[in-house]
Structure formats: structure tokens, C-alpha cells
Amino acid sequence: MNKRNFLKSLGVLGVAGAFPGVFMGACDVNGSAPACDRIWTWLGVNNDWSDQELDAHMHMLHDQGVHGVFIGGDNERFFLAAAKWGIEAHLWNWTMNRRDAEIMEHHPEWYAINRLGESCFDKPQYVDYYRWLCPSRPEVLDFLVKEVRAKAPQPYIKGWHLDYIRYCDVILPRALWEKYNIVQNEELPPYDYCYCDTCREKFGKSDGRDPLEIEDPAHDEAWLQFRYDSITHVVNTLAEVVHEYGKPISAAVFPTPTIARKLVRQSWDQWRLDMVFPMLYQGFYNESIEWIGDCVAENVAAVENRMEVYAGLYLPDLTAPSDLANAQKRACHNGARGISLFGGLTEAHWNALKKVEKK
Ligand SMILES: [Zn+2]
Predict the structure, then answer these.
(1) What sign for the dihedral angle of Cα 73, 79, 85, 86?
(2) 186 CA distance to ligand 1 centroid (A)?
């Protein structure tokens, strides 16, 4: 499977008070930071795996000290295999990017529309699987809530993980410009969403203007904020539902709140999650391993203990085990609760991780 930002008024009390036992604050009652000792990873469901193969994989993750795994599908066999080895298994949910046959067939109007009037339904940008739903449509949110209510109560599902919880990239990470042969020094109409009837009407009611008539949409604070809020509303609604079941919710997000707003309209520092997994994939931004530590420091400061912050590491860009160990060390020394790993790991990588002092 491919994979490539709360209001101050809420504070820690808002989350912890409402959902005791769910929120796993970054500080304990004595105010000291917990160890940076948790490792999470993603795992797609492969039904070809035998029970033995699945068990061996979870056994290996257990032996390597993995704390939790995001499983890409409601497959009880995978969840139970993780549980057998004491690994916390959450459902990995592709949230806004949906090519579900049911939605494609029955609700083409749910898809986001760009500034040229083109829909993600039949004219996806960048890659064929980029089929983004409009976060402002009440029917979309109803669908997502029903999905949570149908799966989150399952006893084997220990938490909910949001991925692709954002708009389509209005600006791609810098290193991808060459890959797609696009120069994106500014927001361009084909990648700028959403201008559907619902978004135009909702924004019009609150602002008085039609988004399509805004001369400089890339710098229009009200129009930008409308879209940040639109995704934030989806996240916080889903968080409330997941919390009803006494389970934690997390999300994979862009590297920092600043970058996330600019590239994909995520104001994730305002989200009511328990954990956040910024994808600090330095190679996508032509950045160094030092940048990973800088992002973690910025993120930890931004969330002010409301959520646990992990450092999402991308293994294909950390091929040398010493690079992975260096990235983990910088994440931990800047206040991360742990790291998450995406991509394949070698035995040498695991050994390198074991040698890092986790504080
Ligand atoms: Zn829309």
C-alpha cells in the first residue's frame, strides 16, 4: 500500500477532562516528560499472508520493540495477531481521499471541485488515486461518522488513525515538483480546492463573497481560514465519536502546522487528537536529518501538551542505519514521544535503533 494541526481555550483539561483515560498527555502528573520510547508503524492488509506468516511478522515487531501498528483495513485476523504479541493496533483510515466504488457510483457530487470547475471525481490531479471529497458537505461528514460508528466499537480495534485528512496538495512538497514537472511557486487554479456549490454557498453566507470572485485567493485570509476550519470540523467531529467509544484517535499530518496550512490546508495544531504523526520526510522537502529535529521542536511547542507528538520517519530516505539512528536521536532530544516508521526496515536498521539513548 502506498503512503507516502487546538484552541487555547480547550487546554489539556478540555480533552483529558472529557475523556479520562483516553488522552495520553505528554507530561505525567509530576510534570516530567515521559521517555521517547514508542515506535509505531503502518501495515497494509495482505490477505495472502497465512496465519503463520502474520504471526511471525507480529512476533518480529514485538521483538523489535514496536508499540503500535496502524492496520490498513478492518481485518480482525490482523488485529488479533497484533494483540497476541501485545502490540496496540489502530485502524488506518484513508479519510478524505476516497475512491470507494460506493461513493464513486452513487455520490459523484461529493467530490471536491477546483478553481477551474473540474471535479476530483473524473479529473484527479497528480495521480489517478487522488479522489478527494469535499470536507464542507454535510453528507460527506455523515458518511465518515457512520464509518467510525460501524467499526470503532469493535473490541479488537484499539484506536482510529486518520490519513489523507486534508485537501489535495495545492502546492506539492518541493522535491516532487520535478517528478510531476510542475513549478508551484504560487497556488495554481487546477490544484486549488474546493469551489463546489456547497463551499461557495457556505462561504457566501459567512463572508458575503463568492470564492470564485476572489481576486487573490492564495492570500485571502478569510477564504483560507474557511478551508482550514472545514477540515478541522471533520477531524474534531470524528474525534468526538471515537472518544465516545473510549478509544484514542490520531492522524498522519504534514511536517509542521505552518507547512501543513500552506501545502494542504491542515491547521492540525488545532485538532482534538490524542496523538499526531507529522510526516517528517526530509527527502520530500530537500531537507537534512537536522530538519527532523527542528520540526519536532516546533511541533511540540505548537501543541502545548495537548497531543503526543511523534516523528514520522521515511525509511527510503534513511537507508543508512546510522541516519535512522540519528533521526531518532534528534526526534527524542526535541521532545517527541517516539517515532513512526514508514517503508521497509532492515535488521541493521533495527539494531541501530536499539543503540539510541531514548530521552
Ligand atoms: Zn466543496
Answers:
(1) positive
(2) 21
Contact 129, 94 (CB under 8 A): no
Amino acid at 164: Y
Q: How far is the CA of 109 from the centre of ligand 1 (A)?
A: 9
For 302-321, write each residue's pLDDT tens digit.
999 999 999 999 999 999 99
Tell me the per-residue pLDDT of 263-306, one tens digit each, with 9 for 90 and over. Answer: 999 999 999 999 999 999 999 999 999 999 999 999 999 999 99
- As beta bridge partners, residue 311 has 339
- Rounded Cα distance between 152 and 247, Å, is 8
Which CA distances in Å does 159 have to 106, 154, 337?
29, 10, 17
How far apart (Å, rounded) are the C-alpha atoms in residues 83 and 87?
5
Count Cβ atoms within 10 A of the Cβ of residue 291 and give its class: 0-12 exposed, 13-18 middle, 19 or more buried.
middle
Q: What is the mean pLDDT of residues 154-182?
A: 96
Element (H, E) at 338: strand 338-342
* Cis amide bond preceding 120, omega within 30: no
Are 228 and 167 contacting, i.e. CB atoms less than 8 angstroms apart? no
Q: How far is the CA of 345 from the centre of ligand 1 (A)?
A: 39
- Provide the whole-model pTM: 0.91
| Ligand 1 centroid from CA 177, angstroms | 26
Q: Give distance in angstroms: CA of 15 to centre of ligand 1.
A: 29
**How would you classify the pairing of strands 338-342 and 38-44?**
parallel
Q: What is the pLDDT of residues 19-61, one digit of tens each?
A: 333 444 444 445 566 789 999 999 999 999 999 999 999 999 9
Helix 321-333 × helix 289-303 angle, to 10°: 30
